[in-house]
Amino acid sequence: MAGGGHRRPPGSRVGDVFELVRLGLAQTRGDIQDLTGLSRVTVAQRVNALLDGGFLVEGGSRGSTGGRRPVELRVNVDHARVLSAVVDTTHTRVALTNLVGDLQDDEQLDIAVDGGPDPVLQAIEESMRTILRRRGLTTSDLAGVGISVPGPVDPRTNRPSEPPIMPGWDAYPVAEHLHDTFPVPVVVENDANAMALGEHAAHYPDCPSVVLVKVSTGIGTGIVLDGEVYRGVDGGAGDIGHVRLVEHMDAVCRCGSHGCLAAVASGHAVAESLRAAGREARSGRDVRRLLDAGDLVAAHGVRTAGRLVGQVMATVVTMLNPAVLVLGGDLATAPLLAGVRESLYPLTLPRATRNLDVRLSGLGTDSAVIGMAHAVAGRVYSPAAIEASLS
């Protein structure tokens, strides 16, 4: 749950002290003193309350320039568990993790999102109950439940907001539905945002800006700035799959518009072109299966799609000047990476890409699971929540 590039949390209450440790800004009592200006006695009181409450644990001793070695403080990642559901267009993964996303159990569900929310959420609930029973746990062992969906989520309502490829899900009370079964906080997040958060937490905790592009059956972008997901006013930030390409206005998108990036570069679009070439492919997963089998036609199609993705990402990179651009999703393979690089660099000034690291995801399908664990932890273990718990 460590992070970097964050602003120092305001205040010096016990919840703020916990936040310093959670974000990786403080690792010892001395660090807390330096950052807050609190006295040694007050820091000891704050830390002892967090230790007694099970929120922090003590680790080993750090090196010292003299005198007694300071003892490291760490978040107790096993203080509670998180149940997450990563909903994709054709399948869903349900996982049990600790607070930093370390996997403890999971199940795969073959259920399509276009069947509407009720059957998908019912299958998720059943799977979650099964996992809890299998692990000998109850809802009292949970910090919360997280669910990521392949569409925008309104940050004000915690509900899907006009998702183009999720019929019946618009404004559906996903959190309320799950809360009826699991009476714990429920966090709903866009899948690309969850993946970006997971990549940032696992591989780039000290990086101030990480952008992830998910290229699967659809296309979306997650943006993490200063350790926080940037969602935009209505949750639509990063929805690059529906940026229109004027040279492809003849392509009809599943959202109803013409010329969308997703209509020509998504896994769904590549699968359509592969079917025309005699391949069995209907989704991003099918395209990935062909890529893994060494199909050269599939590799060519994905590389071509990558060039189009890179064309759109050139604008994103120019605007945000991120440090890392991660490619994730079913099509995140060497051909996609090559295609993105081929168009991204010529379309941007050297200043925008001089220090840009463009790479494939190092987490694969785990990125959203890890991201949802961190999203839930960030909500449940906020300074205000810690204060309320210890009061």
TrEMBL record:
Recorded superkingdom: Bacteria
Record key words, sorted: Kinase, Transferase
SUPFAM superfamilies: Actin-like ATPase domain, Winged helix' DNA-binding domain
The keyword Transferase is assigned to this record: yes
GO molecular function terms attached to this record: kinase activity
InterPro entries: ATPase_NBD, ROK, ROK_cs, WH-like_DNA-bd_sf, WH_DNA-bd_sf
Family listed: Belongs to the ROK (NagC/XylR) family.
Name of the protein this chain belongs to: Putative NBD/HSP70 family sugar kinase
Lineage: Bacteria, Bacillati, Actinomycetota, Actinomycetes, Micrococcales
